[in-house]
Amino acid sequence: MKNSIYFSEEHDMFREQLRRFIEAEIVPNGEKWEEEGTTPREVLRRMGELGFLGIRYPEVYGGSEMDTLATVILAEELGRSTFGGFAVTVLVHTDMASPHLFNAGNKEQLDRFMPDIISGKKITAIAVTEPGAGSDVASIRTKATQTKGGWILNGTKMFITNGIYGDLFVVAAKTGSTSSTSRSYIVTMFIVEKGTKGFSNGQKLNKMGWHSSDTAELIFDNCFVPDKNVLGEVNQGFYAIMRNFQNERLVLGAQALGEAQKAIELTVDYVKERKAFNSVLWDKQAIRQRLAQRAGEVEAGRQLLYYAAWLDSQGVKCIKEVSMVKAYCGELVNRVMYDCQQFHGGFGYMKESTIERMVRDARIQSIGGGATEVMLEEVAKRM
Ligand SMILES: Cc1cc2nc3c(=O)[nH]c(=O)nc-3n(C[C@H](O)[C@H](O)[C@H](O)COP(=O)(O)OP(=O)(O)OC[C@H]3O[C@@H](n4cnc5c(N)ncnc54)[C@H](O)[C@@H]3O)c2cc1C
What we know:
Blueprint: H1 9-26, H2 30-36, H3 41-49, H4 68-80, H5 84-104, H6 107-119, E1 124-127, E2 143-147, E3 150-161, E4 168-174, E5 187-193, E6 199-204, E7 215-226, E8 230-231, H7 237-273, E9 275-276, E10 279-280, H8 285-313, H9 319-343, H10 354-362, H11 372-381
Parallel strand pairs: 1-4
Antiparallel strand pairs: 2-3, 3-7, 4-5, 5-8, 6-7, 9-10
Helix pairs in contact: 1-4, 4-5, 4-7, 5-6, 5-7, 7-8, 7-9, 8-9, 9-10, 9-11
The structure holds flavin-adenine dinucleotide.
Flavin-adenine dinucleotide binds next to strand 1, strand 3 and helix 11.
């Protein structure tokens, strides 16, 4: 990104290194992982060794102390891999689950968990959504009751990424005295380790896309969590979740943007080769103008994304801008995929085409991690 007002030489080097790694080690294998329904642990370990899993974390734990713009690079480049399932496996770990632990953890917890998180030895998951509460976090029903030396968790979490293969689960539970069925903001976060008695997986869930990411139901049945695994302040978890959702939304926007950019590139290549009515498809004005239009929209989204990331890196409050990024990019990637698949013709409907997978993978981008309508409410509140 030479001459960028946002990126330094260090950022550019990071992007190049990441792109090389993805081309060499992800793209050739991604299809196999889609079929297997998971991204192998060795890949995450390898990414840990290369320093990709701790870019924002302190050096003392193995991180590289970069900024929000570096996070955006990570998410964009993973999105460009064309394997959304792989991308989200990594990004949930680096930017949606582990930040809860890092931001709220005490010294003992950070010392205990961060080195393994950054090296990829332990993979994290974030468990907020439930069968009856997704967008409306205050309606969760999982309950934690205080007991001697810790807390007893009861409840079910739904659609949890890294739910089967993860090791450390950041779990939101109600700790207030209100009825477990009502909306309330009295929530506490807990670290639940794989293998804890009373904690199990429901079925691995089958999805439309993101096949190389595992998604599961989690069940807490009188699960004892010791006091040392309480994350942050008791009863203040709701506000911590909302704060950490900012990073999650920025990252999902960046991933969507990377996917959209790559889809346009693939489609331009395709229509410059494919012939119909005596010339290549690119010669049809309707096609090249639509692609030019989408390219402009992607560029506009990118500028908003970089601006929001820059604001965040300067410590400026930017809930409105981040919500715009998530809403805009989540919708845009779907419009882009629709057109790109259209211009691939019948081939774009075939499993062997890359665009077919990208279309399926993109659909969740306007739903998960803050649906478009919820994001627009965040914007509207600030208008
Ligand atoms: C593949 C996948 C992976 C996921 N991974 C995780 C994870 O790792 N951890 C986790 O905790 N959760 C995860 N989720 C959950 C995800 O974040 C939720 O599905 C999402 O927040 C929407 O919640 P919901 O499904 O309950 O939809 P609902 O809240 O029931 O909403 C349904 C739809 O209604 C609309 N809507 C909602 N609220 C409003 C409103 N106020 N105004 C107007 N319209 C509205 C939106 O269009 C929304 O899509 C995952 C989901 C999927 C599908």
